[in-house]
Amino acid sequence: MERERKFLQGNDAVALGAIYAGCKFFAGYPITPSTEVAERLAAWLPAYGGRFIQMEDEISAMAAVIGASLAGVKSLTATSGPGMSLKLENLGYGYMAEVPCVILNVMRGGPSTGTPTGPSQADIMQARWGTHGDHPCIALTPSTVYEQFSQTVRAFNLAEKYRMPVIILSDEIIGHMREAIEIPAKGELEVIDRMMPACSAEEYKPYDNSQLVSPLAPFGAGYRYHVTGLNHDEYGFPTNSSKLIGLQEERLLLKIEENYDDIVQTEHFHCDDAEYIIFAFGSSARASKDAVLNLRKKGIKAGLLKPLTIWPFPDKDIVKYADKVKGILVPELSLGQTVREVSRAAGGKCKVEHIYRVDSEPISPAQIEKAVEAM
Amino acid sequence: MAYNYEEYIRKGRLPHIWCPGCGYGIIMKSMIRAIAEMGWSKDETVIASGIGCASRLPGYLDFNTLHTTHGRSLAFATGIKLANPALKIVALGGDGDMSAIGGNHFIHACRRNIDITVIIFNNNIYGMTGGQYSPTTPLGAKAATAPFGMIEPDFDLCKLAIAAGATFVGRSTSYHALPMEKLFKEAFSHKGLSVVEIIAGCPTGFGRKNNQKTPASMLLWQKEHAVTQKMAEKMTAEEMEGKFITGILHQDTSKKEYVENYDTVTGFKAEGA
Amino acid sequence: MAKSEIKINKERCKGCEICVVLCPAQVLDMQDFKVHVADIEKCTACMQCELRCPDFAIEVTRL
Fold it and tell me: What is the predicted pLDDT for the residue at C2?
């Protein structure tokens, strides 16, 4: 398969990325601004040996995705804020039972029904802490149509590799905008499949605490085991042993901590000599890129630090610049979620400032330039 | 000859968590015998459940087993079936699990006619949390959250399933161990969504508050109040008062099974095909 | 001569008495809150106790 040039909507690119990654199941529920992903996969999946279902609600869509993955099939669901709120219940189950799957949240305004057709970046903390209990989290933030494709492939890879749900946090602008992109040829991007057990059925431990990630046998393959949302032992059976509960809880977070460098991806645009860093993702990163170029024309040394992974938070990159720059500006479509994390990571070593829009309109390059000039 | 249940029970998992006299163990035995009779292999069988007393059942059985979130077993099971239609899937839960918090998934699974067998363990109460009223608690019955008696009308789960489009609907009780086994086999053999409601007693959460003081008296209550379709046809409305019909209540083999129909309509191409 | 052998798994028996009440031949009674075979001679091996034991604690073998 050769590279193919296509003019695509951001949501279409997620659907194509999913197929590239080997996704064979989609369950969803219609919701603006993510519905196109469901529409494309309803049409495309059967030809690739995959199945699609529109479930009765967002809760069941998330459940079906986890069920399909346990049967050995890479699975995706797509939604937006109100739907994401409903998915949180079974998202927690996915973390606890360690089931790989991908959840796309095309962020729109909130709280509640908010503004379905306007962009937002205010689900950052929901992605991290939405479901109850301590839990791991991987969330990716594409900002171009190509990244909608490539980060979807990466989301599947991380889900399969670390046996957990992975969230893609896109936004209404990135989901609905159209750009020409080159679809990578087969084999050009790495595609990772989950580890299968090499041992006998008798020896198989689906939740072995002596390693961070255990192989995952699909239902029906001869490795009969139990899956539960309760704290469980290494065979999957519910346990009240405080030792096992503690080990399991810590292991779930260690999967992320120990693999930070593999999971965190950032893009550095004119950062090397920058006096001001703009930390922005998604649609805000697009405006920020323009702002950097405009500011440089005016002689102000600005750079863009764009996270492609927002969770785990790219602390290391912020630390790297914090004591070199005069300030970090965080433009976001939120009253202040990402900026809190940037401030925490910067640890007082530089000024951290925040600009925002929450009126369903994007931030403009001019707004960013003005803010940097005033720093 | 004593029946060899141990073949299907995971080593070291018994005794189960259910209270003394809980009918769920009797249902589990009937399920085991029915699955064995069907000749389903352990590897191809999946038992999924939600949350509650009944939903602890899968953990005891040596199949591919899945204990999901409250009310969601059918939604998980739907995903499993679509991912691998060759698997034999039973989704089970209690009355609260399947008809309150999981009611939406239940009616839509019935409507889709996907090839899964649903078993509802109906003990008219939320047992695990200590006896609160459920959608099937009878009018006037006492519950931990209905200290003055239940004021909400109850669901007839079988009628609900039939109205929602299930193509096989049957009912039995935990007293009727052998007829229940037969009904399970009939449900397992049915292509499409089959629903089996089992009336069971909760001596701890329901019986003690409602004049059914012992587990045995709860079983005998079931025996006295269950009538077969044939018996019911000869009974007057007055005689039927308070009774319920057991056996197959509804079967329709004309409706297409969901996954088969999906594959035909969409031109689904299995990998490599 | 007894028609059957009844094996009781005392570890599993929770003492619910279902088998004692439902046995049509009064073969079983309770001892220390667990089921106990009182009179094996009366047993007809009808299997009702085994079928309805919720705790997998009774095994009846026809001799």
Answer: 86
Domain CATH for A126: 3.40.50.970
Q: Which chains border A (3 or more CB–CB pairs < 8 Å)?
A: B
Q: Model confidence at A1, in pLDDT bands (50, 70, 90)?
A: low
Q: Which chain B residues have any C-beta within 8 angstroms of a chain A C-beta?
A: 10, 13, 42-44, 46, 48, 58-59, 62-69, 72, 74-80, 82-84, 86-87, 104-105, 108, 259, 262-263, 266-273
Helices (H), A200-279: 242-257, 260-263
- At B1 the pLDDT is 76
Residue B166 C-alpha from the chain's centroid: 13
Range of B191's domain? Answer: 13-261
Which residue from B minimizes the CA distance to C21?
B216
Query: Is residue A26 over pLDDT 80?
Result: yes
Residue B6 lies in a domain: no
For residue A367, the Cα-to-chain-centroid distance in whole angstroms is 27
Task: Return the closest-CA partner of residue B95 out of B205, B258, B193.
Answer: B205
> In this structure, what DSSP letter does residue A131 have?
S
- Quick check: is B8 in a domain? no
Which domain covers residue A328, as residue numbers? 267-373
The mean per-residue pLDDT over the stretch B68-79 comes to 98
Give the sheet arrangement for strand A226-228, strand by strand: A226-228, B64-67, B45-49, B88-94, B117-122, B194-199, B168-173, B244-251, B226-228
Picking from B80, B97, B261, B266 by the largest number of A CB atoms within 10 A of its own CB, the best residue to mutate is B80
Distance from the A156 Cα atom to the nearest Cα atom in chain B, whole angstroms: 17
Nearest CA in chain B to C33: B20
How many domains does chain A contain in total? 2
What is the domain-level CATH number for residue B249?
3.40.50.970
Which residues in chain C touch residue B215, judged by CB atoms under 8 angstroms apart?
16-18, 54
- Its pTM stands at 0.97
Q: What is the pLDDT of residues A122-146, one digit of tens each?
A: 999 999 999 999 999 999 999 999 9
